[in-house]
Amino acid sequence: MNGYPNQDIHEHRPELLSRRGEALAWGSALLVVAAWIILAVSGRRAPAAVPVLAVFLLLAALGISLSNWMDRQSRILIDGEGITFHNGLRHTRLAWHQIRQVQVFPSPWGRKVEVVGPDSHFSFRTMGEVKIQDQVKGRMGFKQGEAILKVILDRAHLKHIEHSGSGYYYAPE
Questions:
Q1: What is the sign, positive or negative, of the torsion defined by CA atoms of 88, 10, 106, 24?
Q2: Contact in structure between 143 and 127 (CB atoms under 8 Å)
Q3: What is the largest CA-CA distance in the chain?
Q4: Which residues pair with 105 in a beta bridge?
Q5: What is the mean pLDDT of residues 110-139?
Q6: Can you give the residue ranges of every domain in the chain?
Q7: pLDDT for 171 beyond 90
Q8: How confident is the model at residue 2 (pLDDT cuts 50, 70, 90)?
């Protein structure tokens, strides 16, 4: 099944944020570019801030679109032999014995988990909520993120090694 030796494969996908922010970023960028074009066509010189703002907003919109696309492509596959991470740009397969370290960093939007192998690594977020004025506006990360982390630590035989101010580190004993 899917080229994996173990038939017991569990696939996980992240929760997806609304695309309203992406639409707002593109709309803002296009509005500033349109204003710049109107000024240029009418023979007026645009203030220096207009092209700077246009470039900034276009780059922000591109970044948001890329991030949303990667989230929609993301998946984690767990089987008896190891773990596979795919997000459209990165494809990493690590056997359980290849995992050298797991780093966990707390954040307001779910914990960030970095899984490190000898030649590759990947990261994912556990479930987090985006709140504005104490109202949940969206969820992001992997709903089963805490369970995925536990499976990685158990199957790779990793133990808590260090706790620094910024996170936790797990490695073989």
A1: positive
A2: yes
A3: 70
A4: 112
A5: 90
A6: 20-70, 75-171
A7: yes
A8: very low
Nearest alpha carbon to residue 166 among 107, 100, 105 = 105
User: Could you give the C-alpha distances from 7 to 14, 58, 77, 145, in angstroms and in order?
Assistant: 22, 45, 12, 22
**Strand, helix or coil at 11?**
strand
The answer to whether 152 and 124 are in contact (CB under 8 A) is: no
Give me the residue label for tokens 């907003």: 57
Per-residue pLDDT, 17: 80
Write out the E strands in 30-171. Answer: 75-78, 82-86, 91-95, 101-105, 112-116, 121-125, 128-132, 135-142, 159-164, 167-171
> Structure tokens of 31?
């509005």
Nearest to 8 by CA among 102, 79, 96, 101: 79
In the predicted model, what is the mean pLDDT of residues 21-26?
94
Could you tell me whether strands 167-171 and 159-164 are parallel, antiparallel, or unpaired per DSSP bridges? antiparallel
- What's the pTM? 0.80
Distance linking the first and last C-alpha atoms of the chain: 34
